[in-house]
Amino acid sequence: MASQIPALPQSYAPTNESVFSDQSGFFSLDSNVPGLSRVILNSLNMKDYGQYRAAVEGKNKGISFRNYKDMFNKMEETFKFCTGCNKLPEHLTEGQSLKRCVKCLNVYYCTKDCQRKDWPQHKKVCKKLRLVGIDRLVEWLSFTGNLPFPTKKWCKSAAEVRNWEDWLSMQGDLSPCLDTILSGGNMTNLWKNNCRPRPDDDDLRQSLWRIQSEFLSRVLTVGMAVQHFSLDPYAKPLTIHLAGASHNESMGARLTDYDELNSMFPGHQGIEVVMVGPEVVDGPIVRPPLRAFGPRQRVYISAYKGLYHQFWEELVEKKEAAKPDLVVGYHPGFHANKGLIEGWLPTLLLLRDFNIPSFFTMFSEMELECSLQILHELEIHIRDSGPNPFTSQKPEQVQACPNKMPVYCNSQYIRFQGLQPQQESEEASPDN
Ligand SMILES: [Zn+2]
Ligand SMILES: [Zn+2]
Fold it and tell me: Which segments constitute the MYND-type domain (predicted)?
């Protein structure tokens, strides 16, 4: 019987457009359901993801949704294809319609038969996808300004905060804060206008936390990298580059997004965060980086749209931007061949040759292994790697392959710097 189950699409293979996108990104729709994103964009009369998200945020002048209902409907359309056979709505025969799995309300099927055949696969992820289904709607509250919610000052030193548990223990009871969002107008609007019933309050509280954790995961990962490299933000101002910053990080980014670093290193000498990536989305953070030091005790964010090695040539080498003390990248996906050759290779060589402390995260152990292999082949000196204690708690669906086990942002990391030590300079080991 197994042979009758439609084969799951092969793993993510980047196209020209998806080279710099992560696996969960919009364009990865293209990789397994040919033309799906094109279909959506055409039906919305939009030319790219940026326009789409801008419209969702209500920022687009030319294009906007008629009302919330219309907007949530359009967002839902991006998930409408048969999980069993990949059929799009337009390929259905007359009288057919895509029906949702009633358990997760997150995947669609063209027929009962397709659903039945898919169940052995889908049942492994259905429970997780229920959370994905809630989160992808609740995430809208980060565009309305309800998320991230404000955090409290740290009562422990950075070194003492080793994982989420430690961080949460400093925050006290989160429920008053979460309940304010729960009873707010935006939350009401959300469930009045999207096409599923409002989950119970406890589900929503947990979802709010998961989305908050994704936001904080990035900041805390940077702080962890600072500590792992023993950089001292009290000795001198730090410049941190986020290489390959994507729309995920730069969409709707605010000047205060890395302020958790102020709680982590109170009274520091100044921390500049520069987001660099071809997918950087226009907004208040898109402003020139600093040539030297940022304001003391403050985090200064700027952003540059372009590839990292270009940024280096254009700005760092010409001393228009300060040289980094640390480079961090969130799931660059340089294990995807094309991305490596076209985008990441010059950057990796540059980081290696300038001996820059570098810290990159991955979505999964599989991605970690592939990335380690690549760095090894480039003779990059890997300092350590493993699970990130500040992994995002929000499950991320591999959008075009809903039956793949959901992944988590920043769940693994690699820390590297410089060239692998030469053979002759190594201490003789007992094996030699
Ligand atoms: Zn089907
Ligand atoms: Zn399901």
Answer: 82-126
Q: Where in the chain is the domain with CATH 3.40.50.150?
A: 216-419
> What is the SS3 assignment for 419?
strand
Are 368 and 362 within 8 A, CB to CB?
A: yes
CA of 45 from ligand 1 middle (Å) equals 26
Proximal ligand: closest to the CA of 116: 1
Task: Please enumerate in sequence order all residues whose Cβ is within 8 A of that of 223, keeping only pairs 6 or more positions apart, or say none.
Answer: 158, 260, 261, 264, 265
Burial (CB count within 10 angstroms: exposed 0-12, middle 13-18, buried 19+), residue 277: buried
Ligand 2 centre and the CA of 101: distance in Å?
5
Q: How far apart are CA 373 and CA 150, in angstroms?
A: 40
Element of type H or E holding 350: helix 345-353
pLDDT single digits (tens) 163-195:
999 999 999 999 999 999 999 999 999 999 888
Could you say which ligand is closest to the alpha carbon of residue 126?
2
CATH of domain 216-419: 3.40.50.150
Taking a C-beta distance cutoff of 8 angstroms, is the pair 16, 336 a contact?
no
- What CA–CA distance (Å, rounded) separates 355 from 379? 12
- Name the closest ligand to CA 83: 1
Closest to 10 measured CA to CA, from 26, 28, 31, 29: 31
The two beta strands, 299-305 and 271-277, are parallel
Give the ligand at the shortest distance from the Cα of 111: 1
Which uninterrupted H or E stretch holds 301? strand 299-305
What is the 123 CA–ligand 2 centroid distance (Å)? 7
Largest CA distance in the chain: 74
Residues 121-177: pLDDT tens digits? 999 999 999 999 999 899 888 878 899 999 999 999 999 999 999 999 999 999 999
Average pLDDT of the chain, as a whole number: 83
Q: Which ligand is nearest to the CA of 96?
A: 1
> Residue 110 C-alpha to ligand 1 middle, in angstroms?
4
CA of 26 to the centre of ligand 1 (A): 22
Residue 225 CA to ligand 1 center (angstroms) comes to 45
From the CA of 123, the nearest ligand is 2
| Strand pairing report for 271-277 and 326-329 | unpaired
